[in-house]
């Protein structure tokens, strides 16, 4: 290769790299120093983590992480490593049990009476801050000076939940995030988003977590993420659902006891904690913030619906990896500390919330119409078509200056973040008003034919009785009237591996025979509200809405025209009312009047031969 050619090649490579490296287009970075830097292990520490050794440039892969934890837990009597299930590609999803108890079985941990924290990292495996923070904290519990954290608390830690996606590693997976250099992928090996799977339970990963929740019964559950979206000063944002949701005592505890304590510790360590933030208008944060409670497809809402204190942690993607990991460490440590003093109180509060049996249960919470919600993470949280705005309060936002520019490429406006801190008072919509209520039935009857749905309800830990013989029961059932497939925007395309359904319903009182193997689910149980959200067709996270009942939309028996024609003639002769109804329908609906098939089907639907179960949602409500 001659010299000129070589230089051209080098130049070409440089150009490609420069153009494709999104990091160089991120908003300006603000230098950070904080007291939490003292948590980093010194070189020569035999338990220094891989991230510490690289000065937080990289994060260890699955094998390195699991091997490090194997060694750590073998060396420390305080730590036990277990597999909670296998991924679809066969990797163990492992969990560390940190406890001073001699016996680490779920029942012994429960018997100890100590509050139990369950924290998970890497549900979106590119957002892996929690893993590296947990490695450091567990190392310090085992061999540093933090053993006392376990005096009054037990701790479960899942370092990598989305294990397969963690190995789909690349520097090009998270263009809006400052490190680490190697990042996992957002969705699992089946391209399913684990943080949309809590209600439907398609994935082995989330099924494994639900099993842990049911077996160990943690008093607090933390799900650690990294944001996308707007720029602001906060490096760590977190919270529960605020006033939304079905666990008022727990929400109050998170807001008034947990958050002030955690904020104080984070600030003392040089971090900038903030509330969960979603800009009402992604180009202009001064228009307001929205706290949206999604349905139980999301970890935090799911936890709330089943009355388990749950926290969503969103580290800010534009802050450097080191700062984010250290903030997560401080938050995890603060959580163990507050559970030591306030955990028993949280247990009592949880018991009270679990005993609530509201007659009317909201299926959704009002949110204002969002503008420029290009970030799908945010718009996917909308769960109701009721967009009348709730009354907002205000928030002092530690924001960043921004300006709006006109694009020569799209001819539209876009935002530029200037990296200059600004404080502004903005409106804060917190979704305080419930919408779409459902009246609580005594219970639900689910026919044996819905075995897949029954199996998933069981995985949730919902208590049910299976009937050994068939039984006739007086129930209310829903006839589906109008329906569309696809998402709320009427886009007919699959979402998370499902064809979603939106339908209107008309209740019918029926005497329905439920065959042997059918189940009865009483709503008088701690998971009663979760059962309602999974079984009421109006709920956006019900199995109906997720498309588990698509077969009811098909009519499978029919009548020949040579039978229906004379039958229709006889029906009209015998009933002047029917004659009137038929003439009216023809006059009102020209398409009907000119469609032989529609007319004969109309007559067929008025005979006893018509399929009574067509468009009938097969789950019965006992009132
Ligand atoms: Zn995430």
Structural commentary:
- With 623 residues, the protein is of the alpha/beta class.
- 32% of the residues lie in helices and 21% in strands.
- The protein is built from 17 helices and 19 strands.
- The chain has helices at 3-20, 50-53, 62-75, 106-111, 129-143, 163-166, 204-216, 248-268, 299-305, 321-354, 376-379, 451-459, 528-535, 561-574, 576-588, 590-593, 596-605, and strands spanning 79-86, 92-98, 116-121, 154-158, 220-226, 236-239, 273-274, 289-290, 309-315, 360-365, 393-406, 413-429, 434-439, 443-446, 465-466, 471-485, 501-514, 519-522, 620-622.
- The strands form 5 sheets. Strands 1-2-4-3-5-9-6-7 form an 8-stranded mixed β-sheet, with helices on both faces. Strands 15-18-14-19 form a 4-stranded antiparallel β-sheet, with helices on one face. A 3-stranded mixed β-sheet has the order 8-12-11, with no helix packed on it.
- Helix 8 (248-268) links the parallel strand 6 and strand 7 (273-274).
- The radius of gyration is 28 Å and the shape is globular.
- The termini are far apart.
- The model is unreliable at 15-19 and 373-380 (pLDDT under 50).
- It binds zinc ion.
- Residues 124, 127, 225 line the site of zinc ion (ZN).
- Zinc ion (ZN) binds at residues 124, 127, 225.
